Amino acid sequence: MNVALISRSTLYKQPGGDTVQVERTADGLRALGHEVHIVLAGQPLPKSVKIIHGFNLGRPADLLPYFKSFKGKKVLSTIFVDYSLADKERAPLAYALLGGHGMEWLKSIARGLNGSDRFPELRYVLSGQRRSMEALLGLSDRIITSSMSEFERIGSWSKHNRKSLRDKHQLVPLGIAEAFIETPLRSEARSGLLMVGRLEYLKNQKTIIEWATQRNWPLTVVGDANVNQHAYFAACKEAAGPTVTFLPYTDTEEIIRLMDEHKCLVIPSLFETYSLVGWEAAARGMVVVANKAADMSETLEPVAELVPIEDESDFIEAVEEAMKGQKKSQVSLENFTWDAIVSRIVSAYR
């Protein structure tokens, strides 16, 4: 097969979970002998492509030009993030006026105006976010979600017939890179907390930074600022006491080293579609404590202690127990390697 994986133009300028997903999918397909092209929004499709695989239903302005013009098979990995909880906090008036879909429409235009991303086509500006997402779902031959709760969320607002969505749907979780599974663990004693991810309202790192400062928890925070949320990054730094260390986004080898040094990974996000980093940390033998929020309640349940972060005392208790080494039982990771996951993606292409 000759496949184009299509994603946002900032996939490498602002790396995130979707960057890992796209690159690991490409690596796995190539290992099986398929020809793969990673196409960033705005770049032309190679003429030899037979299948296009787009990533991120919430960025329809990036994908619709390709899905409307391409005549071959079209596959969509939704990675559908709900930013409403963060938007209500950072821009309550705008959210009250525009709602969730309207806020995403506004952010798409704002990113184009401030130069942090491509300006969307006029058709998207006039159609709006929700209608554009509906069009993208309708043009897709196969819809891949990483959890059933993600699929149910899409069905709850989409006007498409639920049966037609189910007929197109395939459940494919994310995979764990073999480096996280195969590399021997450190023998030295672990200590402290670790957070990994881009610093932004939705990831909610500031809450843990404040608690770590109040309780003298040793905490390492790994990630760069969201280019459009520098105020949040500054607030995180301001809230940090002497036990909190900030490190920039780094490579897999360094992340593994940090995971092997720390006892507990904390995931305080208000929303995550999958949170692959939680599985990676569990593969390294870490205790994982995460906010009990969609869709993490489903995707992280086998490997994490899930506690609603709004229950401050319960979440703090879970973190402090984790630092004592109260580890959740491990699951078999054989079915969660990227090799196993990519084989399921290939079946979705057929």
Gist?
It is built from 16 helices and twelve strands.
Protein architecture, described:
- The protein has 350 residues and is an alpha/beta fold.
- The protein has 2 domains: 2-176 and 338-349, Rossmann fold; 178-332, Glycogen Phosphorylase B (Rossmann fold, 3-Layer(aba) Sandwich), CATH 3.40.50.
- The protein is built from 16 helices and 12 strands.
- The protein has helices at residues 17-31, 60-69, 84-90, 92-114, 122-127, 129-139, 148-157, 162-168, 178-182, 205-215, 230-239, 252-261, 276-283, 296-299, 312-322, 338-349; strands at residues 2-7, 35-40, 51-55, 73-77, 142-145, 169-171, 193-196, 219-222, 244-247, 264-267, 287-291, 305-307.
- The chain has a 6-stranded parallel β-sheet with strand order 2-1-3-4-5-6, with helices on both faces. The protein has a 6-stranded parallel β-sheet with strand order 9-8-7-10-11-12, sandwiched between helices.
- Helix 1 (17-31) packs across helix 16 (338-349), helix 2 packs parallel to helix 6 (129-139) and helix 10 packs parallel to helix 11.
- The mean pLDDT is 91.
Chart the SSEs and their pairings.
Blueprint: E1 2-7, H1 17-31, E2 35-40, E3 51-55, H2 60-69, E4 73-77, H3 84-90, H4 92-114, H5 122-127, H6 129-139, E5 142-145, H7 148-157, H8 162-168, E6 169-171, H9 178-182, E7 193-196, H10 205-215, E8 219-222, H11 230-239, E9 244-247, H12 252-261, E10 264-267, H13 276-283, E11 287-291, H14 296-299, E12 305-307, H15 312-322, H16 338-349
Parallel strand pairs: 1-2, 1-3, 3-4, 4-5, 5-6, 7-8, 7-10, 8-9, 10-11, 11-12
